[in-house]
Amino acid sequence: GKVLAAGTDYAVTYEINIAASDDAVAILTGRGNYTGSISKKIAIQNVDITDAAVTRIEERVVYTGKEITFGD
Predict the structure, then answer these.
(1) Distance CA 11, CA 26 (A)
(2) DSSP H or E segment with residue 1
(3) pLDDT tens string for the chain (72 positions)?
(4) Cβ neighbours of 44 (radius 10 Å)
(5) What's the confidence (pLDDT) of residue 64?
(6) What pLDDT does 58 receive?
(7) Cβ neighbours of residue 57 under 8 Å, at least 6 residues apart?
(8) CA distance to 56, 67, 69, per residue, from 72 (Å)
(9) C-alpha closest to that of 38 among 50, 20, 26
(10) Are 61 and 68 in contact (CB under 8 A)?
(11) Phi, psi of 25 (to 5 degrees)
C-alpha cells in the first residue's frame, strides 16, 4: 500500500531505446529499503510531432557544452 518514490526507493534505466521498436527494456532497481531488480520489455512508438513550439527559453542561447536550464 506504499507509494514508492523514483530516485529514492528505486532507479529506472533503459536498454535498446534508441529507436522505435518493441525491443526496448526498462530496468527497475531497488534502492534504500528495497533490493533486487526487474526488467520488462517495453515498446517505443514512432510518433510524428507536428505544429510544436518551443517556449519559455531565451531568444538566443549560446552553446556552452553544458546543460542549460531556465528558472520557472
Answers:
(1) 10
(2) none
(3) 889 999 999 999 999 888 888 989 999 999 999 999 999 999 988 888 888 887 776 667 777 888 877 665
(4) 15
(5) 84
(6) 67
(7) 70
(8) 9, 16, 10
(9) 26
(10) yes
(11) -130, 130
Separation CA 26–CA 42 (nearest Å): 7
DSSP 3-70: PP-BTTTEEEEEES-SSSEEEEEEEEEE-TT---EEEEEEEE------S----SS-SS----SS----
**Amino acid at residue number 23:** D
Angle at 58 between CA 51 and CA 49, to 5 degrees: 20
Residue 20 is which amino acid? A
2: its cell numbers: 506504499
- Which residue, among 2, 44, 49, has the nearest Cα to 21 in the 3D structure? 44
| Of 14, 1, 13, 7, nearest in space to 31 by CA | 7
Cell of 49: 510531432
